[in-house]
Amino acid sequence: MTNPPPPDPKPLIIIVEDEAELAVLISTHLERAGMRVQICNRADHAAKFLKRNFANLLLLDINLPDRSGFALLEDLKAAGITVPAIFLTGNVEETSKVRGLELGGDDYVTKPFSFPELVARIHAVLRRTEIKGDQNLTKNVRVSDEPFDFCGAHVTPKRLEITFPTGKAVKLGRKELGILAYLDANQGQVITRKALIHAVWGVHADVKSRSLDQYVVKIRELFKEHGLDLGPFRTVHGIGYIHDPKGVSSEGE
Fold it and tell me: What is the average pLDDT across 120-126?
């Protein structure tokens, strides 16, 4: 007898709302709808939580005691923390709504609101996010990304494939693809190991520098096996790596 598949994990919703009674009321309705909830009554509380934990969605008030919901969303994006956000506010001005959406908010709900509508809007944003994520090969590479050249080889993301000058095409692992794509997009710049891990695995990934270095070794061995020189792709000891095909930097060896 086979065991039934495990249930889908409940999405974690962060409620950033300083009105305690309203936050608890929203929390109760979301939990009844099959979601997990974390309440933060200050923007800084939410920022600290999200720097240590993954969340599926933010319900974000605009007017918070320490800083605005707009400022919080901007700071999160600057830190590389991309989490879907629904602004939940009593501010009905169109300019406020436009600003929220331009900052990357996924929806904008004004108070008062019905809880069934709020739950429906949350589900809609979660569905869109899931569909969008289906195209991701790594955090920084999508199936639809254009091919690019790297040290004489041709990389095709949609086929997870790297083609060498001999015409030999080899399958490329997702993480190796992500590393090459990030280095290619940041030519001539020293990339720290931490920045490269965050770009490919995500901000909240528990990946050590040693693991990253092992992927880099695999890349180097693959190019060497096919007779290509990785001279422009250099290690910057104690820091990370640099891909410098135009020779603009003396960093690395």
Answer: 93
Q: So what's the pLDDT on residue 51?
A: 80
Which residues lie below 8 Å from residue 102, measured CB to CB, with a gap of 6+? none
The count of residues in the chain is 253
| The two structure tokens encoding residue 43 | 């923007």
Q: What is the mean pLDDT of residues 73-81?
A: 80
Residues of the chain with CATH 3.40.50.2300: 12-133
| CATH 1.10.10.10 residue window(s) in the chain | 148-243
- Dist. CA 112–CA 109, nearest whole Å: 9
**Average pLDDT estimate for 47-67:** 89
pLDDT tens digits along 196-236: 998 998 876 778 888 899 999 999 999 999 999 899 999 99
CATH T-level fold of 12-133: Rossmann fold (3.40.50)
| Four-point Cα dihedral 51, 95, 29, 134, nearest 10 | -60
- The long-range contacts involving 148-154, CB below 8 angstroms and separated by at least 24 positions, are 148/181, 148/184, 150/180, 150/183, 150/184, 150/233, 150/243, 151/223, 151/228, 151/229, 151/230, 151/231, 151/232, 151/233, 151/245, 152/228, 152/229, 153/223, 153/226, 153/228
Helices of type H across 18-85: 20-32, 43-52, 69-78
**Of 115, 148, 131, residue with least CA distance to 13:** 115
From the number of C-beta atoms within 10 Å of its C-beta (0-12, 13-18, 19+), residue 246 rates as exposed
CATH number 3.40.710.10 given to 148-243: no
Structure tokens at 62: 């605009």
